[in-house]
Specification:
Layout (H helix, E strand, L loop, with lengths): L7 H9 L5 H19 L5 H10 L3 H10 L2 H24 L8 H5 L12 H11 L2 H23 L1 H8 L6 H14 L2 H32 L15 H10 L13
Helix pairs in contact: 1-2, 2-4, 2-8, 3-5, 8-9, 11-12
The structure holds zinc ion (2 copies).
Length: 256
Amino acid sequence: MIKETIATIPLMDAFGAGDECPFCFLEREAEQHAISFILGSAYMEDDIREKTDDAGFCRHHFKMMYDYGNRLGSALILSTHLKKLNLELGGELKNFSPKKSGLLKRMKRTDVKNAEAKTPLGAWIRRKEASCYVCDHFRDIYNRYLDTFFDLYRKNSDFREIFGKSRGFCLPHFGDLIETAEDKLSEDQKKEFYPKVFALMQDNIDRVQKDVSWFVEKNDYRNRDKDWGSAADSIQRAMQKCAGGYPADETFRVKP
Ligand SMILES: [Zn+2]
Ligand SMILES: [Zn+2]
C-alpha cells in the first residue's frame, strides 16, 4: 500500500488517470484551480491583488482568463496591474541609454529572440514576459510533485509498478523528470531508473505514432470498415506527447 499524504494523493490520481502524461494532468488541475480562484473572488483581496499586480500573467493564462468569463474581475486585475506596469516602465525608460551600433552590427541578420538582451530595458521586458501569477503557482507545486515522484520511486515498490505500467510522459515533462533525476537518484538508482524510463518513453511514443498512422490509413476507402482501434483520439494525444497540454479540452469556463 502506498501511504497517502497531501503530496502523494494528487500524484497517484494523476498516474491513475491513464493519460499520456501525469504531469500534464497535474498542470491542468493546478492552472484551472488558479484561474477559478483568482477570478472567483480572490481578486477582491488586497494581498492577492498585490501579487497579481506584481507578477502579471503570460499570454496563455491571459487567454484562459479571457475565456473563463468574469470580465469585470479581469478588468479590475488589469487596471491595477497596468498601473504598476507603467510605473515600472517609466523607471526603465528614464534610465534607458542607447548603445553605439557599428556597421558590422547593422549588417547582421536580426535574431532577436535567441540573442541575450542587449539593454536593461530588453532584459526587464523579458522578465515581465516570463512572469505569471498562474505559472508561478504551478512552478511551486510542480517542483514539489517532482520531489514526491522520486520519493515514491525510491521507497515504494507499488509506485514503481504503477510507474512501469504508465504511458510515459510528454516530451517537456520528461525533460524535467530527467533533469531532476540527475540530482535525486544515486548512481545505482540511475542504473535502474534510466533504462526503464527511456524504454517507457520510446514504447509510448511508438504507440501514439502507430495510432496516428492508423488514423491516416483509416482514410483509405479500403479500411473504411475496419476498426478505429485507439486511433480516434490520437491527434490530441500525439500533440500532447510532443508538446504537453490537452488540445482537445473544452474551454474552461466559469460554471453558470
Ligand atoms: Zn506533460
Ligand atoms: Zn502563465
